[in-house]
Hints:
alpha/beta, 2 domains
Amino acid sequence: MPHIAILSVNHQLAPVEVREKVAFASNELNNALAQLNQTKGVEACAILSTCNRAEVYAIISTDNAQEILSEYLANTHHIKRSELDPYLSYFDGDDAVEHICHVATGLDSLVLGEPQILGQLKDAYHAAKKANTLNKLLEKLFQHAFSTAKKVRTDTEIGSSPVSVAYCAVKLSEKIFADLAEQTVMLIGAGEMIELCAQHLNQKGKSPHFTVLEQSASSSFLTCFTKRILLFLLLLPLYLLSARVWLKPRSNYVSINLCLCWILPSQETLSLKLPN
């Protein structure tokens, strides 16, 4: 009989170096879904891949669901099972339903209650829908998770505070520096979490921000900065080594006091005080 099965590699068991190995790039997701959906015994599937977790959601008609999903994840990412198995979490039936609801509400997140995961789960749902790898049972599972998350956020205080890893990084920085508004900040990356870091920093004052990113960064991301200087990513080691940035046309060095870095696919925002 078809049943719900979930295989997860997440921050609770897996270190950064393991989570990196099982991450799915967005441009590979469609092929990954098609490959899994063609596997014997798999009737429907979806894949969630974030900074913090890689999870496979499936409807499977055989009794060896855990083995099917474990083999798929290992083979897709060319990892030996002996290296991967210690970090796998498997859920089926009612436990699987409970798990996806915990994920959707932020109860399973690194920062309790963070809201970004719900949007990421919806992206995973839409990707599976686009790839035509959903069926009625998996569709029902996702809709149940979404409605549960909405109810939890409506009926409880879990969403009352602006919690996210980015927010926590900025709050930690405030404890390190007496006046965060007076610091020069380097932001490394151009993703959602770094954008949130920029937004939180802007609320603290007019601190100049140096962004180290690739030229593909969106214009909406760049508007987050009160002041911005785009630096080449390849030169990042030099910036960090000297803790200074050469500003043109002013022709002088500016010291970097604080560096916030978002390194995919881990969800660790690094906050460190650089030497003067």
